[in-house]
């Protein structure tokens, strides 16, 4: 079951996360955000990819964060979907097609705005929890944007570092061990050299989806 988190149950769920982290040290994350203002060509150099990522993340607000806590055997302890209040679909910059897709898949942006959690409040709670739990390992799927939005949040919504090496160092300092499933799939037989999306990977591995696609909670359950 995906635990939906809003302003009203935020404190209780953060306490639950803190307790569970004593036995479950693997955090699987996924985010939903308002699209890509700059689309990066597939053959772009790493520097260009990072410039585009920074341009996008610096200018847009996070809509949802989903994460699961697992133990070292891969057993899922619990799953959360945090709904944030900072994105206003009327006034904030976004890509209309991306917002249309999120609405189609069940994200109520107006409810988020009224009843969601402020990202700065979430960040302060998460930083306190991370200061206690030092053994966390992070798992993503094609997760550079996930890490970038989370890093922006934890920094108090400061702009991302100016260069990719600076970003990599900062992310390493904050998160420690990070594993990207899409990257690892490149080196696994039968997984198309990693050139596949999350939905396709789940089908190959015979993983059944729970919830809607393009919601952070359901997507990270597939990753987990």
Task: Give an account of the 3D structure.
This protein is of the alpha/beta class and 224 residues long. The chain has a single domain (2-223), classed as Nucleotidyltransferase, domain 5. The chain contains ten helices and six strands, in the order E-H-E-H-E-E-H-H-H-E-H-H-E-H-H-H. The protein has helices at residues 10-20, 46-59, 96-104, 109-115, 119-132, 144-154, 164-175, 181-185, 198-204, 216-223, and strands spanning 2-5, 26-32, 64-70, 76-83, 137-140, 177-180. A six-stranded mixed β-sheet has the order 1-4-3-2-5-6. A hairpin with a 5-residue loop joins strand 3 (64-70) and strand 4. The radius of gyration is 17 Å and the shape is globular. The two termini are 13 Å apart. One of its GO terms (molecular function) is RNA binding. Ubiquitous transcription factor required for a diverse set of processes. It is a component of the CCR4 complex involved in the control of gene expression. Keywords: Cytoplasm, Exonuclease, Hydrolase, Metal-binding, Nuclease, Nucleus, RNA-binding, Transcription, Transcription regulation. Its main location: cytoplasm. Belongs to the CAF1 family.
Descriptive key words:
cytoplasm; single chain; 6 strands; transcription; Nucleotidyltransferase, domain 5; 224 residues; globular; six-stranded mixed β-sheet; alpha/beta
């Amino acid at each position: 079951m995906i635990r939906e988190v809003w302003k009203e149950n935020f404190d209780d769920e953060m306490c639950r996360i803190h307790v569970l982290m004593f036995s479950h040290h693997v955090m699987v994350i996924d985010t939903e955000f308002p699209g890509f203002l700059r689309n990066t060509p597939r053959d772009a150099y790493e520097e260009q990819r990072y410039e585009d990522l920074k341009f996008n993340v610096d200018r847009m607000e996070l809509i949802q964060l989903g994460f699961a806590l697992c133990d070292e055997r891969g057993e899922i302890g619990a799953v959360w979907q945090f709904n944030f209040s900072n994105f206003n679909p009327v006034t904030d910059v976004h890509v209309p097609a991306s917002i249309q897709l999120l609405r189609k898949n069940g994200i109520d942006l107006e409810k988020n705005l009224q009843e969601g959690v402020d990202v700065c409040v979430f960040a302060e709670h998460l930083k306190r929890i991370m200061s206690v739990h030092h053994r966390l390992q992070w798992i993503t799927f094609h997760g550079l944007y996930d890490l970038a939005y989370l890093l922006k949040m934890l920094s108090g919504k400061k702009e991302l570092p100016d260069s990719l090496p600076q970003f990599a160092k900062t992310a390493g300092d904050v998160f420690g061990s990070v594993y990207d499933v899409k990257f690892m799939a490149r080196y696994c037989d039968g997984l198309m050299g990693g050139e596949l999306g999350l939905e396709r990977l789940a089908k190959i591995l015979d993983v059944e989806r729970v919830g809607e696609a393009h919601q952070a909670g359901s997507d990270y359950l597939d990753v987990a």
